[in-house]
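Form P-L/3: holo structure prediction, ligand histidyl-adenosine monophosphate.
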Amino acid sequence: MEIPQKVRGMQDIYGEYQRYFTFLKKVSRHEFRKNWFTRISTPILEKVDLIKRSIWEDTDIVSKEMYNIIDKKWRELVMKPESTAWIMRSYIENFLDETQPVYYYYIEPHFRYERPQKWRYRQFNQIGAEIIWEIDPVLDAKLIYIWKSILDSIWLKDSFKVKINSIWTSKEREKYIEALKDFFANKKQHLDDNDLHRLENNPLRILDSKNPDTQELLKFAPKVTDFLKKESKEFYESVKEYLEILGVDYVEDHTLVRGLDYYCHTVWEFVDFSGRSQDALGWGWRYDELAKSIGHKTAIPAVGFAFGAERLIEHIMEAWVKLKNKDVIQLYFIQLWDEAKKIVLPLNIEARNKWLNSQLSLWTPSMKVQMKKANKINARFVAIVGIMEAKNWVCQLKDMESGTQEEVKLENLLDHVITKVWKDSLDFYDPAKDFIIVEPIKTEE
Ligand code: HAM
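OUTPUT (holo model):
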């Protein structure tokens, strides 16, 4: 019988890749916490209505890329392809009475039924953040700054650029879209199928066309700036001014559009310099009308951003910095006799209390076989306890880097190894530091 393989477009995350993911999560968590964001997790499944009302009704995501599920009562559910609508739904359900605005971040798996390729998976992780309830251009600029700080901290400093644009308000967009449609009405014969589809279904996306003929025509198309009201212009100018104050370099890109009704004002994208088609590291935008489109009676201003974690991880792995490996075994016990095993087992446990990662060989084949294994797992030190050593309460300690060996008393072994290993690699974590003991409240009799 064939063993089932993993589902296409989904990956097992382990080893070095997992270590980079942990690093990325750690950096992001710290950056968010410093800026008063708290973490939120929303369910993987939601009712299909949420996504239809909110997200991409006429886009590929809804028409082709959703993972739909019919539950046992024939309800249609969908696995989350993104988190913004999920968080807005949760906000309306849970946080309307909280101190506003609310700042949330998430690190969550997402699902899109796309054609799998490098940088594009069917299950992928996003690290994202949303600020809800406030409209202030400083928030848009600060979010961009926070993401830039994260990329700087993970050493991708010079590997990306920030593109920004304004897509104004939905009313202004409507007028502009009409003008754009009029302009292309007698030029359809010059458009390819893709651009024709865009013109019909999502006209703003035509600004994003990669077809050189369309790009040429666009030079003569109506300019959006002619359709903007003073407030929209001022909002965009303020975002740029704040970005300058925060020292964020950006380029303006007026083709940067996503044509959903509830987007407004700022959109931005972080792209790498690779020039490959999947160069988007993350997208962000303001979405003041989303709450209304999912059924809330009023608009709720909000702004957010999400990075594709896999894209960042693969970038860091290709960069010239290497992550320290903290999953190493610093001390590996080789025992050559069953009685020796009883001696090293308590030491193996005590090592754990001293933040030292250790492991012991479980059965007792030849010394050669055990040494081979120690080598294979890259153990830093090996403590060998044979019959004589056990009797004399010592071990032979082998430094696997230098190849030298010395006899060490067992009672000194752990402290001795600790002085020799690289301090950073000790795995300090004391769960007790994360809680406070609360005295039970005494009630009067
Ligand atoms: P998005 O542009 O659809 O935006 O996705 C954000 C990022 O997720 C992309 O820039 C990309 O790095 C990564 N990504 C998307 N699809 C895949 C895939 N199939 N495989 C690997 N990585 C992928 C959103 O999802 C919005 N919710 C972002 C947002 C939050 N806007 C406001 N708040």
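COMMENT: The chain has two domains: 15-169+229-319, 331-425.
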